[in-house]
Amino acid sequence: MNGAKLRARLQAGEPITMFTPHHASSGFAARLVELGADSVFVDCEHGTWSFEDVRETSQIVRSVGGAAIIRPHSHERPIIIRYLNAGADGIMVPMVDNADQACAIVDAVRYALPSDHEKRLVIAMIETVEAIDNLDAIARVEGIDVFFIGPGDLSQNMGFPPAPPFGEERPTEVQEKVAEAVRKIRSAGKVAGTLVTADELPGWLERGVQFFYIHSDPFLRRGIAAINQTLMR
């Protein structure tokens, strides 16, 4: 499944999942798709993935029916172009605070792929209070497929830790700010996305979120803990 197919499903109102393997492993990324993930998150902002890793993982993930969504470390034009040329099915650009930055991302994608940019999914990450204040203008930029609220960086921007303790909810103030962003995105007729746990997903689905980023570690943590508890009985 490439970026164009993901876009078509989103436009049809379907939800899409994106799981992160957390590690630079094309095999694990492919396995997540084989187990039911629509796409995998290749994090080149915080992870250790190289350009060659991106190329190999994108090819393998597509071969099993999924899509590889790449997050560069910034919205530098040459970086976006290089990841797209390496074969990314989609680009998920961090810290998009205003409409000018969103326009520059779209321009970079279309410059990199003048004949087939529509095959790539373009995601703008909304991660600050400034970005949410500017969302009405940002959402008017044509060429952005998903407006993704990053609750971790938003939490830090609002003066909270990036993540709550395992199993706990984010601060109410952060949840309300994410909900405000979702309302603005949906009111503009655009697709909203955010990071969720399995417990949080139903509530955000009801609010109209369609693009769900999910960590794989909690499933592994709970599974291993259950095995260890059984062994200790």
What brief labels describe this structure?
TIM Barrel, eight-stranded parallel β-barrel, 17% strand, HpcH-HpaI_aldolase, Pyrv/PenolPyrv_kinase-like_dom, metal-binding, Pyrv_kinase-like_dom_sf, metal ion binding
Can you lay out the helices and strands and say which pair or pack?
Layout: H1 3-11, E1 16-20, H2 26-34, E2 39-43, H3 51-63, E3 67-71, H4 77-85, E4 90-93, H5 99-112, E5 121-126, H6 129-133, H7 135-138, E6 146-149, H8 151-157, H9 172-187, E7 191-195, H10 201-206, E8 211-215, H11 217-231
Parallel strand pairs: 1-2, 1-8, 2-3, 3-4, 4-5, 5-6, 6-7, 7-8
Description:
The chain is of the alpha/beta class. The chain has one domain: TIM Barrel, CATH 3.20.20. Helix content is 46%, strand content 17%. It contains 11 helices and 8 strands. It has helices at residues 3-11, 26-34, 51-63, 77-85, 99-112, 129-133, 135-138, 151-157, 172-187, 201-206, 217-231; strands at 16-20, 39-43, 67-71, 90-93, 121-126, 146-149, 191-195, 211-215. It has an 8-stranded parallel β-barrel with strand order 1-2-3-4-5-6-7-8, surrounded by 7 helices. Helix 2 (26-34) runs parallel beside helix 3 and helix 4 (77-85) runs parallel beside helix 5 (99-112). The longest helix is centred in the last third of the chain and has 16 residues, at 172-187. It is globular. The relative contact order is 0.12. The model has no long low-confidence stretch (mean pLDDT 95). InterPro entries: Aldolase/citrate-lyase_domain, HpcH-HpaI_aldolase, Pyrv/PenolPyrv_kinase-like_dom, Pyrv_kinase-like_dom_sf. One of its GO terms (molecular function) is metal ion binding. One of its GO terms (cellular component) is cytoplasm. Belongs to the HpcH/HpaI aldolase family. Pfam families: HpcH_HpaI (PF03328).
